[in-house]
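Kindly inspect both lines:
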Amino acid sequence: MKRLQFTCLILCCALTTICFSQKKESINIVFAGKGFTEKGKEEGSFTFLRDNQQQVHFVHNGVNVYCDKAILYKKDDFIEAFSNVRMVQGDTITMTAKYIEYSGKTELAFARGDVILKDPKSTLTTEKLHFDRAKQQAYYDVSGKVVRDSSGTITSKIGRYYMQNKKYQFIDSVVLVNPEYTLKTKRLDFFNDSGHAYIFGPSTISGEGNDIYCERGFYDTQENFGHFQRNAKINYDDREVIGDSIYFDRNLNFASATNNIKVTDTINNSIVKGHYAEVWKAKDSVFITKRALAITVQEKDSIYMHSDTLMLTGPEDHRITRAFYNVKIYKKDLAGKADSIHADHKTGLTEMINLARFNSKDPFAAKRKPLLWNIGNQMSGDTIHLISNVKTEQLDSLKVFNNAFLVSKDTISDDAYNQTKGKELIGLFKDNELYNVDIIKNAEVIYYSRNGLGELIGINKSKSGSINIKISDNDIEEINLINKVDGDLSPESLFPKNANRLRGFDWRGDERPNSVEDLFKDDPPLNLPIIKGLDDYVPPEDFFDEDVRQRVEAAKPKDPKKENKAARNLPKKKKEEKPSGN
């Protein structure tokens, strides 16, 4: 026994002397319980075993290898380490496995069996791992898992770790699982120190109450926010947000979108479009501007509303839409214009409001009254209320408060207008067409009365307490003056030309939108910001590149019959692949 220990000691010293006598540092054995030449093994190889207290210990260029058993191939400067193997580089990198082989000539290591690579912030586990100490890179292609406490767990089929940049690159079936969300993507670049993740290819981030899709993106896994491009969209419970670029903050439950935005409310069958939007999920709020357009989708005829700014608030069963500044409405049989609109989707009430900043008390601005057109009728007043049947999605009635005015063009004359005015107006609809109008208080009327042949009988100009008008096929069928004050039917020849307009008359038919495109005709030119986003994905250099293969080739034994151990786990050279746009 003593002789064996003495022989081992002499061998260790001899190996140490050999190592230090060479110009390039070779693998050096620091400790072994036993050392011997094993029968049946390659000539020149030495087998080392641990003792009861310490493992076998090797060192090479700052890396330490510990194991229960090792075989050193001195001429090849190559070791095989077995059982409870631990490779330690400095004070930052530790790799453990059942088996590790390492070449001192190439500085390439290969680990197999329950492989674990640790640094201060992450732990990588896989079954097989290549470690290039010269380039400070690790690589697996048999599926692996990285655990980072603050970010979660990342799995992929192929992975690479750049130790100098502290960057992981995951490829193929990448899944990041965090307690708050799950990220699935085709390719992911992940920076270990910052927790920044760069997403390439079709990707989803699924969390409680929200799902994100994009084909390019960035996500800060520590601060829980990110931005996404290329077919980007967020599903917020019953809302879908689409835009050229989307920003999302998970902590605030907030999202904003830029350029070509579309927000779809699947519960209330509505769509909002624009070029800048903000969504506050906790507040059930959507803010959208830059050519904002709200579409209430109906089975037969959708309603379109455009304004400078739109806000949708409230839970799914009680949505409120607010539109500000130069609001226009278009429907096949209805159009409107107002400074501001407030619509309650639960009650079916739409309020068209005249903003205070444009009222008559402002000496620098003319009063701008809301307008509503139905078929050929123009209605105006200080405020207009439209009431819809929320079940049938049809207009039920309208109310005009203060300075109510109803105007329609005479069917034949170019410059003749049927006019009715009063303090308030109440209109009733059937099949979305106005059929009954009541003018209440201080009512006045000018009406061009014609016979069945369209010939003008006379012009009726009257005043009364109130007026009831029956309308059919866009023509006034009957006028009833209630509590008539004065007025008569006069022939056109006896009717004064300067009396053919009621006070406050304002025909604004040229402002009426006659199509969806007309809603935008007064808008200034739109200049959208340029969104660069992430560059196209550039495939990395092959881990087993020309440099690695040259090092392996240089490690070849002089005897061509002998195995080049450094090439054992080197894969065959792949054919060149075309770069992918994803």
The two ends are 65 Å apart (CA to CA).
